[in-house]
Structures are given as C-alpha cells and as structure tokens.
Design brief:
The complex is a heterodimer of chains A (272) and B (314). Chain A is mostly helical and 272 residues long. Chain A has ten helices and two strands, in the order H-H-H-H-H-H-H-E-E-H-H-H. The longest helix of chain B has 16 residues, at 167-182. The chains are: A mainly alpha (272), B alpha/beta (314). The interface between A and B is medium-sized, with 27 and 35 residues.
C-alpha cells in the first residue's frame, strides 16, 4: 500500500467510525450470536440439521460456526452491503466526492482507500461475530474440545485455530459481495440502490445454488463459497473447497472492482 | 511551467446529449487577475469550473491550469489550485477541524500545520470543534475558503461564493476575496451577481448558453456603452431647441419633463454655456453610463435564467 493510499484508507476508517450505519451493522453482527445463545438457553431443541448444530451445547466454540451458517443467507451480505454500497454513493449524493477529488490525491488512490476500508469492515464484522459467539457460547456451555465434521474431536485450542481459519475464509465470498456493492455504489451513485442491489445479488447467487439443474455451476457460485470452511472442519482437512473458494472468490472480487475502478476513474462528478 | 497562464482553455466543448453546456470556450486568465465569470443561471458557468477542476471530462477541446491538463496530469494539474463548485461540501458528521485535517492529509505538503492559520483567517477558530452539520450556510462557505487556503493556492476558483449569504456575510466574503486578491492570488469568480463582479473583478467574461459573448477588461466593457446625459432645465422645450442647434449633441429626446442626449464632454460644456446665454437655467445635468447590469442584459439577450438548461447544466 502506498503512503497516499494509506492516508486515504485511514480517513475512510475515521469516516466509518463516525457514522451510525457502521455501528448498526457491527452491533447486529455481535448481537446475533448473543441472541442465538440466549434462545438456545431458554429452549431445549437445537439446530440439528446444520453443520455442527448437533454439538452446539457441547462447547462454546461451536456457536460461531452455527451462526455463520444462518447469517450467510442474508445477514452478513446485508451488513456488508450496508457499508460497501454506501461508500462511494453517499459521497456522490452529499457532494463530498467533489471536495476530495479536488485535492492532491488521484482518483485511483481514493478508490483503493475506499475498497480497502469496505473489506476491512467485512473482516471486522465476521471476526466480531466469531469472538462474541465463541465467548457467549463458552460462558453458556464451556470451552471444551470441538467435534469436527468428520466426527473426531479436536482440542479447544485447535478448535480456535480452525475457527480463525474458517472466519478468514468466510470473509472471501463476503468480500465478493462488498466488491459488487462498491460497483453498484459507483455506478448508481445511490446508496439505497447499491445496498439493495448487492443484497439481491447475494440472494440470487444462493437461489441459483438451490435450483434443480444448477449442479454443474454450483461449485462456482458465490453462495457456495460460504460453505468452503467446511473443508477446514474435516479431519484430515479437505482442501479442495478451500482452494476453489480462493480463486472463485478472487474472480468475484476482481471483476466488479476492476469495472468499478474504470467507472470511478472516468466518470463525470457533477451535481448528482 | 511557472510562466504558464493560470487558466487557458481552447475550443472547450461539453455536451450532455443534445444540450451543449459549454460551446467552444476559449478563455485565458492572466496572473493576478480577479476574473469575473458572469452568466445567467444555467449558462454553463459551473460546467466550466467542473472541467477546470478535473471533475468532468470535456467532450472536446482542452483546459489547462498553469499549463497542466487535469485530463492528462490528474491531481497534479491542481497543484497551486484550489476552489469549489456549487458551494463547498463537507462531512457533516465530522467537526470543521476534522474536515480540514482530512483535506490537509489528502494534500500533504505540510498542509496540517496551516489549519490554525486558515481557521483564523476565516474567523472559524472558535467553532472548529463543532460538527459541520450544525454550521450555518455562511460558516460552511467560510470553511470552504479555509479548505482552499490550506493548499496555498496561486489560483482560486470560486463558484458563487456569496450565494445564500446574508448582507453581512456577503460583505465579509467580498472583503476576504479582495484581501486574497491583494495577496497576489489569481481568482476566477463565477457569479450571476453583477454588483459583486463590478465590485471585485478587473476582467470579466460573460457567458450565454455555453458561449462567451464578451471577454476583456471590465472598464473596456463599460466604456463600450455610449455615454449619455440627462438634463433638467427651467424651460425644457426651449432647452431642447438649444440642444438641437448645438454641434456634437445627438439623440435629443424629451421624456417626462427631462431631456436625454448623447455627447462628449466638450459638446456638453458648449451646450451648458449656450443654455446659460439663452437664459435657461440648468437644474440638473447628470451623466449616465451604462451599468454592468444593462450591458449584461444586452449581451445575454435579457435572459435571467433558463430552467431547461439549468436542470442539466447548472
């Protein structure tokens, strides 16, 4: 990262920290695992048909994995889009884009700072959920060894490492949604349109994955990559979904960002 | 590069579909000018400023600031240039000072160390810690000037800086512009307020429907209008006959009890003597020069605004 991009990035983070929507998304990401734990404490049933759902009361470490499953449908895509869809459009609408584009930074540097800030936010919400989920779950059910998807147990410490790896892998498809939201934010110059459009895109990817006859393309859909972390939870690890997620997500990130970059570089910044 | 003109545009065109917002504009602004860029609302003033600041791409032609084209040189073309279009915009959820810190970091070049100084100049130091969301319009305009001064500009582009200000705010803003001009900063002032331009500028360009209809020194523009006189006398009818008999007096007309005519100063002096000799008393002899407003209306065809164009072009 160049020093110029680092400065833009730093100020993008300052701006995010000064806006309510940032905390709305982050608060939601942290509240969901808490609510999840409280609800499970109040009732006897459990999410037995989702990965690790059967072991939810065996160890607090299972909580964030189960919440990941539930939030991948629209929870995390919505929170991601809320910030990434706003990051260019709100500045177009408020006219502040003109203010920063008439200083000494090139458009490419400003764009890079904004993209990095969007992806940082995605990273933070996923890891915040993971941390809150693991801590709340551990308070409720203890910090015990984790049963893997292969049925074998791994130590709690190993479980933490698997959780960190899984969360990091989970950020990739979310970054794909963030990239699409940034594209819509740049093209539509309308925050609401970009947020809703990116959410629709995420839901479409998931819908395609469950329709009959889509088996051939399913491994390459963005929605499928939300399950790539299952590979980590097998003993020994199954690397094929992990590796596929890496390159598939790279494409889902790079293509919208490249398009958004070209539009951002060339667009007229007028009255909007 | 240092000898290059602060602003030079060549055959600049900007089209939005069928609408031509800027139509073949050739404009040069010399060092030290306070250049009034004058036109009715929607005439294309802001579009030109946007092109100069690199915010929009011209359809054809070129625009250069100190010899650099924003299309080619990007942000470097704005070295030594600052300003705003359509009013300065800031992050309402950040304080005035934070906004300036952000912009100073974007600028680099030690701009942060100048924040206190520019806040002092625009008299916002006491309110710098408040969020911009709570600022009045005038305070935002002043913060806009402060943000521009952070860049230590040699050229300031100001788009209607007094619009929306109360009379005291307008006076303060004009004083500030005058002061900055006095420090040697070249200023391009876009405005539809004629008295403002007359008050501040030494050169003007008048734009109408995207084209420049006058470009030159303000005094020359005012001088292009024929000078005239109004005369009130003790006997208007006899005075009219005396004037008609004088050489160098033209266009004599009696309107509502007073005479109007055009003449040079010598002819007027001779006429005054002739009126005295004819025992006609002069109660008032008033020279008339066309105001900038009259010239402006003449040059712009009397349009005050053009809403169809305004929606797209403004």
């Amino acid at each position: 990262m160049t020093a110029a991009v680092a400065k833009v990035y730093r100020w993008e983070i300052v701006k995010l920290l000064a806006q309510k929507r940032t905390y709305l998304g982050l608060g939601t990401a942290m509240a969901v695992p808490l609510i999840f734990v409280v609800v499970l404490l109040l009732q006897s049933g459990g999410p037995n048909d989702v990965p690790l759902g059967r072991y939810i009361r065996d160890t607090g470490l299972a909580t964030p994995f189960v919440v990941l499953f539930f939030m991948s449908i629209w929870g995390f895509p919505l929170i991601t889009a809320l910030v990434a869809g706003d990051i260019v459009a709100s500045e177009s609408q408020n006219g502040t884009l003109k203010t920063i584009l008439t200083r000494s930074r090139n458009r490419g540097e400003i764009f890079a700072g904004k993209v990095l800030a969007s992806i940082t936010y995605t990273l933070v919400i996923v890891f915040a959920m993971g941390l809150v989920g693991a801590v709340a779950g551990s308070i409720a059910w203890g910090f015990h060894p984790l049963t893997s998807l292969s049925g074998t147990q791994v130590s709690a410490a190993h479980g933490v490492a698997l959780l960190a790896g899984s969360l990091a892998l989970y950020v990739l498809p979310l970054a794909g949604i963030a990239a699409f939201a940034v594209l819509l934010s740049t093209v539509t110059r309308n925050s609401a349109a970009a947020v809703v459009g990116a959410l629709m895109w995420a839901l479409l990817m998931q819908l395609l994955g469950v329709l009959p006859g889509t088996e051939a393309i399913r491994p390459y859909l963005l929605g499928t990559q939300f399950e790539a972390w299952h590979g980590f939870l097998r003993i020994p690890a199954d690397w094929s979904p992990v590796i596929r997620a890496l390159w598939v997500c790279a494409l889902y990130i790079a293509l919208p960002l490249a398009s958004a970059y070209v539009v951002f570089l060339r667009r007229d910044v007028a009255g909007d | 590069m240092s000898d290059a003109l602060p602003i030079s545009t060549t055959a600049l065109v900007k089209r939005y579909g069928d609408i031509v917002a800027v139509d073949g504009v050739d404009l040069t602004v010399e060092r030290g000018d306070v250049f009034g860029y004058l036109g009715p609302n929607g005439a294309g003033k802001t579009t030109l400023l946007r092109i100069l600041l690199g915010l929009i791409r011209p359809t054809s032609g070129s625009a250069k600031l100190f010899g650099r084209d924003p299309l080619v040189d990007g942000a470097r073309a704005l070295d030594g240039v600052a300003g705003f279009v359509e009013g300065p915009r800031f992050y309402s959820y950040l304080s005035g000072r934070k906004n300036l810190e952000l912009l100073a970091d974007y600028d680099g070049d030690g701009a942060r160390s100048r924040i206190d100084g520019v806040l002092e100049i625009v008299e916002l130091r006491d309110r710098a810690k408040d969020r911009v969301g709570g600022y009045s319009h005038g305070m935002r305009q002043r913060l806009g000037i402060a943000a521009s001064l952070l860049r230590q500009p040699r050229l300031l582009l100001l788009d209607e800086p007094t619009t929306g200000l109360d009379p005291a705010g307008m006076r303060d803003m004009r004083d500030l512009v005058r002061r900055l001009a006095g420090e040697g900063i070249t200023i391009l002032l876009s405005s539809h307020l004629l008295n403002e331009v007359e008050d501040l500028c030494n050169r003007v360009a008048i734009i109408r429907k995207g084209s420049i209809v006058y470009d030159g020194p303000l005094q020359e523009l005012l001088a292009t209008a024929a000078t005239g006189y109004r005369l009130r006398a003790t006997d208007s009818e006899r005075a009219r006959l005396v004037l008609l008999s004088q050489q160098g007096i033209d266009g004599v007309a009696l309107e509502e009890g007073q005479l109007r005519f055009t003449a040079d100063e010598e002819a007027v002096a001779r006429a005054a003597i002739a009126l005295g000799q004819a025992r006609i008393g002069i109660t008032a002899l008033i020279p008339e020069t066309a105001s900038l407003e009259e010239l402006f209306l003449r040059l712009t065809g009397g349009e005050s605004s053009d809403h169809d164009r305004e929606a797209i072009v403004a």
